[in-house]
Amino acid sequence: EGQLQASGGGLVQAGGSLRLSCAASGFPFDDYAMAWFRQAPGKEREGVLCISSSDGRIYYADSVKGRFTISSDNAKNTVYLQMNSLKPEDTAVYYCAADWPRGSCYSGSYYLWKYDYWGQGTLVTVSS
Known about the structure:
By secondary structure, the protein is mostly beta strands.
């Protein structure tokens, strides 16, 4: 059974940076797509970035382009979300999710039901 462990959330001032980590276990760390979602209070869960291991393509939501990046370290079975220039509206619980096997980012359409494994979420709070 695959598992994802998200970590790295915390409190940061507007304009600051944070790096979230998502450690995967229980499934081969290849042929996957890994995405980061977030859910702010009272709002629906939304996808923000996705990386596909098959071709290395990355998909960004418009709200985070130029500020957030995603990367993977296959030796550590870990995907990272680097968040720069944070804004108060980035405040949310951040979740990592894996689509495996034959993972796909679905061309940047974040279909929640397509992801097989989810991390527990880590809270990011950006103060103004």
